[in-house]
Write a structure and sequence with these properties.
By secondary structure, this protein is mainly α. The protein contains five helices and no strands. The longest helix is centred in the first third of the chain and has 32 residues.
Length: about 140
């Protein structure tokens, strides 16, 4: 085998190795992005890890896990139903982003709603104080 041929072969092998590592990194990044970011996702990973390490769930833990899964599925169905009703009735169209937000990003949407409610409450309190001040003046 000539030196040139040997050098080309080594270059191709090194390039293939680099390409394989890069594709593995891309696949890991895609899997990480596709994985759920919620607390339940981490709990499911912990549960799978516990099962792999040989720790078995007690009956109470199994019942609690099943009950939480049932509650989450029921909440999801309710939010989907509310979103469908809001989509069908034009009067409820402003509520559609709320239902979809609670469905897709529950924690962030709750925090935003609490901020909006707090701002509205502060504004109402300010308006009441202003009206009382104008009436008593």
């Amino acid at each position: 085998m000539s030196r040139l041929r040997h050098g080309m072969r080594q270059t191709v092998l090194v390039g293939a190795s680099v390409l394989r590592e890069a594709s593995a990194g891309v696949l890991d990044a895609v899997a990480e992005l596709a994985a759920p970011r919620s607390r339940s996702g981490s709990l499911e990973r912990e549960l799978d890890l516990a099962r792999q390490q040989g720790r078995w769930l007690s009956d109470d833990e199994r019942a609690e896990l099943a009950a939480s899964e049932h509650r989450r599925a029921q909440r999801r169905r309710t939010l989907l139903l509310l979103a469908a009703v809001s989509l069908l009735i034009p009067l409820f169209w402003p509520l559609l982003p709320v239902w979809l937000g609670l469905l897709w990003w529950p924690i962030t949407t709750r925090r935003l709603l609490m901020g909006v409610v707090g701002a509205v409450a502060a504004l109402m309190a300010l308006l009441v104080v202003l009206v009382l001040w104008l009436l008593l003046r």
